Amino acid sequence: MRGPVAVVVKGYPRLSETFIAQEILALERRGLDLVIVSLRRPTDRCTHPIHAEIRSPVYYLPEYLHEAPGRVLRAWKKARRLPGYRGARTTWLADLARDRTRNRVRRFGQALVLAAELGPVESIHAHFLHTPASVARYASVMRGVRWSFSAHAKDVWTTPEWEKREKLADARFGVTCTRANLEHLAGLAPSPGAVELVYHGLDLRRFPSRVAERATRDGSDPADPVRILSVGRLVDKKGYDDLLDALAMLPPGLAWTLEVVGGGPLDTKLRGQAETLGIADRVRWRGSLSHDRVVEHFAGADLFALASRISAGGDRDGLPNVLMEAQLLGAACVATRVSAIPELIEHGVNGLLVPPRASAALAAALERVIADPALRARLAEAGRRVVTTRFSFEAGTARIGALLTAPPHPAPRPSPGDAFEAREPVM
After folding, report:
1. What's the angle, vertex CA 214, arms to CA 238 and CA 216, rounded to 5?
2. Is a pLDDT exceeding 80 seen at residue 67?
């Protein structure tokens, strides 16, 4: 009898990682037995409806080792008797010599708990190539099972090259969600097939089947302004300060409003910037919302704007799901040429693209689409066609399911027990 697949994630549930939740639910529906392992407890005040549909058990590792010293000590006493403990410790010490941080120590401590409490599993799969993959890698060596990963955005571009090379060499397989990521990782992989491209796509069953009809607003009527929407965490890589600067450059007589859905550490700073620029009365800050509420905002938007950029530390978007959702739901898109966004949007065909950190160019693109409802309609129609034909959610999850259920290579059998011996359910 096959054991479950342990899916290691940074935190669960998380509003900003809908793509992980929709993949987990799709794999469940394909018959996979999953156990969700979360490195952190949830911090969001609400959840998406999809989280209530997921039936896999959720177990939390200690986020900080000093908060659960007894659990960590018991795990170490048990894990050190596992056949692969010595090999995992050697790997970790080699990593620690190159990354002498508390986070590296915490990764090994979490891996001890995972390995000690984990019962028979088919494999361990990590979402994100940085911390979750490290925990999965150490624990898999201790337990003698396979591990694999899904690489997404920040994890691809901020993980040290030496670490990516070694993880690519050790993992049974890896998938990533953009061609830009694939080309980068393939250049570090020991063989061409070590990583595959699997776009997230959208589960169309979770969205209205028909696009809401848009009014032909053209920015000339202050009583009926063009409605701009942006959805994303309020962090540097989303470029919200660039978007606000661009909006402030628009002609004073052009009628528009901006709704921002999302929360984050830059909230106060951005609100202050809008005040300083004199556009605060046109901007509505909605905070973090559940997915069904976000869909409602998409339906009412004439235009979707995202000013993504590469942060100083290398962090960047992959292919933001919100751009696909905007196009599916009939909003014309203006975005930046960053990372994999051009894999979805072709300039002038199904959206407009401008360079990142170029507020004047962004302002010009916004002015063009605000004033031209026919252009918005054409871009939106082409965008919906691209999302529904080129980014197949079903094909992607089918491929991941096939990789996870492929016949295993011989490996030491894990010790008997349940899927987890120390149970900490999410509800």
Report:
1. 105
2. yes
pTM given for the model: 0.82
> Could you check whether the bond before residue 407 is cis, i.e. omega within 30 degrees of 0?
no
Identify whether residues 119 and 32 lie together within a single domain: yes
Tokens of 262: 């999302």
Q: What is the mean pLDDT of the chain?
A: 92
**Residue pLDDT, tens place only, 346-392:** 999 999 999 999 999 999 999 999 999 999 999 999 999 999 888 87
Identify whether the C-beta of residue 291 lies closer than 8 Å to the C-beta of residue 321. no
320's CB contacts (< 8 A; 6+ apart) are 232, 306, 308, 341
How many angstroms separate the CA atoms of 312 and 5, rounded? 36
Residue 90 lies in domain? 5-201+392-404
Same domain, 74 and 181: yes
Residues 86 and 118 in one domain: yes
Rounded to 5°, angle at Cα 211 from 305 and 222: 50
Alpha helices (runs of H) in 80-160, residue ranges in sequence order: 85-98, 102-117, 131-143, 154-158
